[in-house]
Amino acid sequence: MKPMQKIVVGITGASGSIYGLRLIEELLRARIQVSLLLSDAGRQVLGFETGLQLDDDPAVCETQLRGHFPAGKSLQVYGMSDFFAPIASGSSAPDAVVICPCSMGTLGRIAAGFSDNLLERVADVALKEGRKLLLVPRETPFNQIHLENMLRISRAGGQILPAMPGFYQQPESVEEMVDFVVGKVLDQLGVEHQLFKRWGG
């Protein structure tokens, strides 16, 4: 697998925004260019769950996050209605798109090929260009519609990686459980990490 250079991370309104933040931190640590797309619901849930209050203006949000991680120009934030962003086009498609966490609404619209905002458009581009699309749903239980939508995405070339932490590494904190899921995402992206102990290691 060739090294990843540009990755889009989407954070939607599902619970589990801490997974998305931790993923961005590790991608920046690996010197990967990260473009963040944050839905309005995702911003609200992130603020409620983590205490990190981000501005709805993409430029201000970008400045806030560059100070939070910290990160320089390796992190960019685009507005969900910015269809002129380079990542909206197949001619400038990122190496991978990860939606973490992914709400069932976002997942369903992607499964239907419905691109009403930049995140859905970028996911659609990833599928049509044969790039990696990885969705991290954080929902339970799944109903039949959820399962059928996930199957449609899988058949179209996307990957479904539910936020299901393992326990064989005997985690002692919430952070270790988060790192397990984020490590699984990084594995699928081909990004080296030391976030959890391998089975038998």
User: In DSSP terms, counting alpha (H) and pi (I) runs of 4 or more, how many helices?
Assistant: 7
Report helical residue fraction: 40-55%
Q: Given the C-alpha coordinates, what overall shape results?
A: globular
What oligomerization state is this entry in? single chain
Largest sheet: 6 strands, parallel
Strand order of the largest sheet: 3-2-1-4-5-6
* Strand residue percentage: 15-25%
Distance between the termini: 23 Å
Q: What pattern of helices and strands is seen along the backbone?
A: EHEHHEEHHEHEH
Count of distinct strands: 6
Secondary structure class reads: alpha/beta
What's the CATH topology name? Rossmann fold
Q: Count up the domains.
A: 1
Write down the Rg.
Answer: 16 Å
What's the rounded overall pLDDT mean? 94
Low-confidence stretches: none
Catalytic activity: dimethylallyl phosphate + FMNH2 = prenylated FMNH2 + phosphate
EC number: 2.5.1.129
InterPro entries: Flavin_trans-like, Flavoprotein, UbiX-like
GO molecular function, one term: carboxy-lyase activity
Description:
The structure is a single chain. The chain has 201 residues and is of the alpha/beta class. It has a single domain (6-189), classed as Rossmann fold, CATH 3.40.50. It is built from seven helices and six strands; from the N terminus they run βαβααββααβαβα. It has helices spanning 17-29, 40-50, 58-68, 104-111, 118-128, 144-156, 174-189; strands at 6-11, 33-38, 75-78, 96-102, 132-137, 159-160. It has a six-stranded parallel sheet, sandwiched between helices. The relative contact order is 0.17. The mean pLDDT is 94.
